C-alpha cells in the first residue's frame, strides 16, 4: 500500500468522522425539547398606569397621576392575557377588575374567540364586569351548581395556563397577598382545558336537560 493511498484513506476517514459528528450534533439539537414557559407572579402589584400596555404606540399619551411605564406583576399578567392570538377561555369566581375587563374586550374586538365561565351569584355583584362582557357580545355562562364556582384560571390559545389565588378584582391585584402561576407545561395545561370544556358543556343554556348545571336549584 503506497503512502499516497494511506493518506487518502485517512483523509476520507477524517471527513466521514467530521460529518458524523456534525449530523449527530444537529440531531441532538432537534431532539432537545423547546424551553417551556413557567413563571410565577406575586401580588399585591405596585399601583401604576396601564395605558402603555393598551396603547404601546403612544406610551406618553396618558397624563394621569399614576407612575407610567412601570413594569409590575399586573402589567406582566396583562401582557400574558393580551398575548392571545386565537382564543381566551376564562373560568372566574369574581370578575370586577376594569383593566382585566378592558384586556378581554380588546381581544374580543380583535376577533379572538372569548368564552367566559363565572360564578352565578358573583356575576351580578356590584362592580361585576360580566354585564359589560355580555353587552359586548361575549358568550358568558353562569355556573350555579356548586356553593361557589371558585376557580380562577385562564387559558390562552388553549396552551398557556394562568391560574392561582388571584381573583380578577381590584382588591386582589392591589391589596391582597396573592399568587399567579403561568405555565405552558402540557401536563398541567391539559387538565385545565378538560375542566373548562366540562364546565362549558355542563352549563350550556340551550341544553335544558334535568342534569344541566343551569337548572340545578340554587339553595
Ligand atoms: Zn396614566
Strand fraction = 15-25%
Distance between the termini: 97 Å
The total number of structural domains is 2
Structural class by SSE content? alpha/beta
* Shape category: elongated
Explained architecture:
The chain has 2 domains: 1-32; 38-215, Endonuclease, Chain A (2-Layer Sandwich), CATH 3.30.870. The protein contains 7 helices and 7 strands. It has helices spanning 3-31, 51-54, 73-82, 98-109, 130-136, 170-174, 186-202; strands at 38-43, 87-92, 113-119, 139-143, 152-156, 160-164, 178-183. It is elongated, with a radius of gyration of 25 Å. It starts with a helix and ends in a 17-residue tail after the last helix. The model is unreliable at 210-219 (pLDDT under 50). The protein binds zinc ion. Residues 49, 51, 62, 64, 66, 68 line the site of zinc ion (ZN).
